[in-house]
Amino acid sequence: MEDNPRAFIFDVDGTLIDTEQYIVSAFQHVIAQNNLEYQDSTRLRSLIGMPLEQIYKLLAGNFHSTDEIEHLCGQHVDFQKEKVHLVREYPQVRETLAHLHSRGVPMGIFTSRRSPSVRPTLQQAGIDSFFDVIITGEQVQNGKPHPEGLLKALSQLQVAPSEAFMIGDTDLDIMVGKNASAKTIGVSWGMRGRDVYNYDADYVIDSMDQLISLVIPKTRP
User: Fold this and answer.
1) What are phi and psi of 17, to 5 degrees?
2) Which residue of the set 11, 13, 169, 173 is catalytic?
3) Partners of 135 in beta bridges
4) Do residues 201 and 174 lie in contact, with contact meaning Cβ atoms separated by under 8 Å?
5) CB 89 within 8 A of CB 121
6) Cis before residue 145, ω within 30 degrees of 0?
7) What is the pLDDT of residues 30-78, one digit of tens each?
8) For residue 3, which of 147, 152, 166 has the smallest C-alpha distance?
9) N or C: which end of the chain has fewer CB within 10 A?
10) 69: how many CB neighbours lie within 10 A of its CB?
11) Ramachandran bin of 34, using left for φ above 0, alpha for ψ from -120 to 50, beta for the remaining angles
12) Domains of the chain by range and CATH?
């Protein structure tokens, strides 16, 4: 990789931390509490990455008002506050972020998840101190794949989109980067697995430590 990035903006779920059980369990809890139509875990996993209110509009059935959807979202977030222990680390993430941080590489987050649950999960994984900016779902008017959140993060870092990478595990993450005219990196260990190879990212990596080659190119003879 011969690009010279000035900043990395990361998705969270399925990219930095393994939150599949953490998120799917919250959906299952809210569905059960409100007698919504049963959804299997495969269906619920496929929705991860979308804005939370948009997901519950799909799941709610007989819920239509904004207040009713927000009530479901609130139940979801409250459940997650008590279940942070379900978050798991991915290999090499903490070490790679620490290395990039030590070299002064600006790093940020753009996630569809809401802020009350984001910081505790990053703390659980021991990576919360590495990020200069965190943009969450309720801080944007337009969710993924709209580039608003990415552009907002880069504006705070004072980095042009052409000098940054958007990194994520879903097609929405890759579309966010492309819609902002940023470079994109897909990761193959997340929610969509190796399907990420079909999303037309500029690069796909199979382990987090491969990011280091983006800022420390191999020495040429």
Assistant:
1) -140, 150
2) 11
3) 110
4) yes
5) no
6) yes
7) 999 999 999 999 999 889 888 888 899 999 876 678 899 999 999 999 9
8) 166
9) C
10) 19
11) alpha
12) 7-18+88-215 (3.40.50.1000), 20-85 (1.10.150)
Alpha helices (H) in the chain, listed in sequence order: 20-33, 41-47, 52-59, 66-81, 93-102, 115-124, 148-157, 171-179, 212-215
Q: Residue 139, exposed/middle/buried by CB under 10 A (0-12, 13-18, 19+)?
A: middle
Main-chain phi, psi angles of 164, to 5 degrees? -135, 160
What is the tens place of the pLDDT at every residue in 195-215?
A: 999 999 999 999 999 998 877
Element (DSSP H or E) covering residue 184: strand 183-187
pLDDT digits (tens, 9 = 90+) for 103-153: 999 999 999 988 888 999 999 999 999 999 999 999 999 999 999 999 999
Please give the structure tokens belonging to residue 118: 């984001």
Distance CA 71, CA 221 (A): 61
Local structure of 8: helix, strand or coil: strand
Question: How many residues in total does the chain contain?
Answer: 221
Question: Can you count the helices (H) and strands (E) in the chain?
Answer: 9, 8
Half-sphere exposure of 110 (CA within 13 A, CB side): 35
Q: Are 173 and 15 in contact (CB under 8 A)?
A: yes
The closest of 177, 178, 180, 199 to 190, measured between CA atoms, is 199
**pTM to 2 decimal places:** 0.86
β-pair partners for 134: 109
Residue 11: active-site member:
yes
Q: What is the pLDDT of residue 4?
A: 63
